[in-house]
Every structure is written in C-alpha cells, then in structure tokens.
Amino acid sequence: MAWNNHSFQILISYIIFCFVLIHSAPQGALITQLPGFNGTFPSKHYSGYVTVDESHGKKLFYYFVVSERNPSEDPVVLWLNGGPGCSSFDGFVYEHGPFNFEAGKTYGNLPQLHLNPYSWSKVSNIIYLDSPAGVGFSYSGNESDYITGDLMTASDSHTFLLKWFELYPEFLSNSFFIAGESYAGIYVPTLAYEVVKGMDAGVKPTLNLKGYMVGNGVTDEEFDGNALVPFAHGMGLISDDLFEEVMAECQGNYYNPTSNNCESKLAKVDEDINGLNIYDILEPCYHGTEMGEILTGNMMLPSSFRKLGQTERALPVRKRMFGRAWPLRAPVRDGIVPTWPQLLKSDTAPCIDDEVATSWLNNEAVRKAIHAEQESVAGSWESCTDRISYNHDAGSMIKYHLNLTSRGFRALIFSGDHDMCVPYTGSEAWTRSVGCEIVDEWRPWTSSGQVAGYIQGYANNLTFLTIKGSGHTVPEYKPREALDFYSRWLAEKTI
Predict the structure, then answer these.
(1) Which of 27, 49, 391 is nearest to 190 (CA)?
(2) Domain boundaries, the chain
(3) Would you indicate the residue range of the signal peptide (predicted)?
(4) Catalytic one among 121, 182, 304, 470?
(5) In 3-state terms, the chain is what percent helix, strand and coil (to 5)?
(6) Of these residues, 130, 280, 419, 484, which one is catalytic?
(7) CB contact at 8 A, 110 and 35
(8) Confidence of residue 109 (pLDDT cuts 50, 70, 90)
(9) 419 an active-site residue?
(10) Which of 43, 198, 215, 368 could disulfide-link to 66, CB 3.0 to 4.6 Å?
(11) Could you confirm whether 182 is annotated as catalytic?
C-alpha cells in the first residue's frame, strides 16, 4: 500500500486521538484499590477535587465511576443527593454505586465491599458530586461559603462541570444527563438551567446535555404540601369519613390551613399516620431509645421519627429515616431551609444509622485511597451535615421544568409510590398541571415480567413514572427495577 501525505495525516490524527483517549483523564485521580474490597474493579474509578473558586479555595469533591460497558459511547450522568446538606456518597454506598457494603463483623472493623449487580455504572459513566461546599468531603478555605442557597449551588455545580470536562475531555461528546433525588428536585433543574444558559452563551467547553431525572423530588410548595392527604386516603391510612371532612374544611389547602377546623381535622390525619415509617410506609419500624430522647420536646415532628426502618433484604436497607425531606405536610418554603441536625439541635439526622458509610469514609486509609483531604482540612464525613446554612431562593421548580422541556430536553420524574414524605401524588399532580398533551396514556411498566409500576408520557419528552412498593430512595429499595427503567430511559427505549 502506498502512503500519501493525506493517509499519513489520518494515521497521526488517529494516534493522537487514541493517546488522548487513554491518557487525558488525570492520572493522579485514578483509584487503584479500596480498603474492604479484594477483587478487581469492573471499570476504572477516579476521584478528587475541582476548585470552583480559586480566591476562596472552594473545592467540590467527586467520585467518578467509568461505565462497565462502553465508556466512550455510554452517557455521562451526574448524581446529586439532597438534604440540603447530604452527601452524594449516600447514593454511592446505599443506592446504585458499584459496590454493596456489608457491615464489619465486629464493631470498628471496616465494611466489606461486594460488587453490586444493579450498579448504574453497568450502563453509564456516573459522577457522584458532594455539593454544595461544606457537604461530604467538599469544603472551602473561607467559611462564608457555607452560607449558600439554590442559585449559588447551581452556579458552583456548573463551574464544577465545566472544569471537570476539561479534566476528562474524552467524555465531552458523550450524552450528558443530570440526576438526583429528594432535595435534588431543586438541585437538578436549577443546575440544568445553568448548563443550558451556558450552552446558549457559547461557554466552553460545550456540554452535551440531553436531559435530567428527578426521584421523589421536592418541586413546588403547594403541590408538595397538598400531596399527603390524598396519598394517605388512597393508601387506606385514613378513613373515607375523615378524608371527606378534611376536604370540606380545608378546601384542598392542606399545607397552609386557614381555619381552626381545618387544623383540627389535619391533626387527626397526623394522629392516624403517626406510627408509620414516613419514608416507606411498608417498612416496619424499630423503636430506638436514644433517638426518642433526642426528639423529646420536638412536637413539630411525628413520633415515627423515633423509629428506624427495617427490612429482610440480605444486605439490608439502612435502619434509618434520613434527612433528605421534611416532616408531614411541611414542604420546603422560600427562605432558610434547616438541616435535620439544626432542626433537632442534635448531631444527627432523625433516626439515621449510617454506621457503614460513616465508618468507611472516615477511615484514614479509605480517605487516602479516594484522594479525599484528611479530617483536619475537610472535616469528618457526615451523611447529612449542619455545617451549611442553606437558603431556598429559586422558588417553584415548575417554571424550570417548563423551560427545559419546551427546549427539547428530556425529563424523567420518578417516584417510589410508598414514600409518604414526598408522596407520588404531588409529583403526579404537578407533572399533569404543566398542561402538556398526553402521548403515552397511563399504563403499567414491567421488570422481569412483573408489573413494576406505572408510567404516563407527555409531549415535550416529559415522563412521570412510579415504582411499585418503593420508598423514598428508589434504587435502594428496588435496585433491579431502578436499573431497568434507568437503562431504558437513557437509551430512549420504551419503558
């Protein structure tokens, strides 16, 4: 074969492309081993800090799991846990990360890590981001940065993404999605809006945003606040008589009652559901004594916060109720959003038992392995922190969803249908209220040949989906079903 100048240039370009593909990821970020895991990683893992404000030394921590399937073609997904104030390692450890964590045999022993057959890295590259600064391993050299809110968090996260893709340019052409749950119902659309503004303005690098996902997400004060009463009635938790009385007295306004009669009827609703695990009404409760003492005097909280959920899964769902959403009929309103530790004047979120994550992520060898700063610099890792003061300053998310979907960005709003804290009834109502034409009428969707929930598709690529029998954190309760709908939605296949 005769080589001409054009052929030679093509060969050189290909060699350079391959070199970039292999070597562009920062080698100092590569994770080579993890304490507690003895096997071979199914894909490459990277982690480290991205500085989003040089003058303040504001640094956001990420853990990046490369897809186990086809990294160069599979989408890149940013995952955000909520709170506000909760670390996205919550998703990594307990939900859809590459490992299942088994508690150490004796107290003080490190957890043992096993490969997770339902990891979302089976079909996607996934970035777990601790946000805002002050949460998880993220921190700032200027403590004024711990006073923050929705708009600043979105701006910082956008800066993080621009710098992250500069560090990992080989993923810039991949389809990009933003996903999260609970208070990330605020984080996700506000960040997506910032990304789109940047794309419109020609900010480089150009992100290839295709859409976003929100699970059991806080969205709108009115819709979220009015969701509990119809949920409780539909689930058979309150009587027809009480439901009719509440409707008559409150006129559909349950979150902001305007009369004493309405208040008294709502108090009866609260009394009827008080003993339930509000994050999954199907889960039994373990009655803990320590949390009961902490909660004494906090009459604004339901008594069920003295209890810890249990399950019979082989690797159990945490025995906890966690600080990712708010007490009954208390939607997130404009202004300061107290973290659970601040709300309770204690060190922990209500009934939280994150011993596995806490013991692993505060281990010195683990922090070194994942390139997290030592405790003297970044502080101890907490699942949900009170280090930040957070202001909800973005208002209702419905206007964000309208803007993004009208621009053609795909949106999946999914909901575990037995979560009583951010009930599916609110998410179903607000997605319907947007007014888009129904293009896929309400129907069951299946996983492994079984009905796994229900779906309704709207014009402008807006989809609402329920997961049957799941609580607040869907991939934690229903990992197989979660991977099923996640995989299909990312691939634009029918769910």
Answers:
(1) 391
(2) 223-392
(3) 1-24
(4) 182
(5) 35, 20, 45
(6) 419
(7) yes
(8) confident
(9) yes
(10) 43
(11) yes
